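Progress against Task 2.4 (sequence-to-structure conversion) is shown through the following example record, which the project officer requested during the mid-term review.
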Amino acid sequence: MKDEQRRPPGRGLTGSVAAAVRRRQQDREPRVVLYNAAGHPRVLPPAAAGYDALLDTADQLIRLTSAP
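Structure tokens generated for the chain above:
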């Protein structure tokens, strides 16, 4: 195996663990993501004005679309 292709030992495992932690946090914390006209996302901080209203509206839309 060439030196360029080798990874430091444990780096793959560390990346996997970090990814798992991020996934768990994402499952627990709702986020409001806004997109501008160019399609670039921006996460709205929970302390921002209108955050709760947007989160409630998104929750209602999800319930409406997932109803049988």
